Amino acid sequence: MSQPPTLPLNPVHVRQQFARRNPLDEAQFLYGEIAQRMLQRLGYVRIDPNTLLDAGCGAGHAIEPLRARFPNIDYTGLDFCPALLQTAAERYAARPSLWQKLRNKPTRTPHFIEADLAQSGLDPSSLDLVWSNMALHWHPEPHQVLAEWRRILKTGGLVMFSCLGPGSLKEVRQALEDAGLQTATPGFVDMHDFGDLLLERGFTDPVMDQEIITLTYRSPEKLLGDLHVLGGNPATDRKRGLAGRAWQQRLLEALEKQRHMDGTIHLSLEVAYGHAWRPASVRSRDVPGETRISVDSISRSRRPPNP
């Protein structure tokens, strides 16, 4: 890949919009489902991690599902939104979790840090597993995030993530165009580009797959309501200011015209899943910030001079 993809997103607006949606309980109809599908994929991977980073942890909804799989995991949650982190700490750091009560055994207290996905501040080679559910598409420079994840993973560590792909929200984009409404919508990175990025950032054996999840609705109002709870529109070129009633009505009418034969309106979400390993050494492509020296050249420098 000649030029890594960047997404036209405003990180400040991402943080503000998720703060307004705190604690994201209503969004778990999708985010929780994707987490379960990630766990199913993780079931085919041979790994027994001690340390885990939940990158983009939100309010910590993945803590108990992850502990059900890895009871003794040392969990760290990272997010850019302080409001969500405060909720996570109140829910999980100060009292035993449901899983702890069921086991009747102590579990390690989860830790939470406020940081950018691409600048975690964590020690290099300190984690066995980086887990990230539906967070990567909210960062404007996903290639930098992947580089950071490689930096903080131990040799043999695994990264597993999910994110939205470019096939998402096509019905909303079409409705905006049909209604003549001028605004930008978030962009997404193609699954195949993520495979290339993983290799370019020093990972090995990347596995990518994707699926289209189609949500069906009886009313366009419910569709837009669910779209709202899943996250806002932090696109840098989006329409400024709040949309008025006339603007919203035109969008609703355009969505109404998309009804299928069964009377439902659809919302397509392309979900990409990926995982890859942090190898002991980089064999094929350079990793930013690293310098590699040939072992042969080191050996030659140590040879005694010829008599």
How would you explain this protein's 3D organization?
The structure is a single chain. With 307 residues, the protein is of the alpha/beta class. The chain is globular, with a radius of gyration of 22 Å. Strands 3-2-1-4-5-7-6 form a seven-stranded mixed β-sheet, sandwiched between helices. Helices cover 36% and strands 20% of the residues. The chain contains eleven helices and seven strands. It has helices spanning 11-20, 28-42, 63-69, 82-93, 98-103, 142-152, 170-178, 191-200, 220-230, 245-256, 295-302, and strands at 51-55, 74-79, 111-114, 127-133, 153-164, 204-217, 265-277. Residues 289-307 have low confidence and may be disordered.
Task: Report a brief summary of the structure.
With 307 residues, this protein is α/β, with parallel strands linked by helices. The chain is 36% helix and 20% strand.
Descriptors:
single chain, alpha/beta, seven-stranded mixed sheet, 307 residues
Layout of secondary structure:
Layout (H helix, E strand, L loop, with lengths): L10 H10 L7 H15 L8 E5 L7 H7 L4 E6 L2 H12 L4 H6 L7 E4 L12 E7 L8 H11 E12 L5 H9 L12 H10 L3 E14 L2 H11 L14 H12 L8 E13 L17 H8 L5
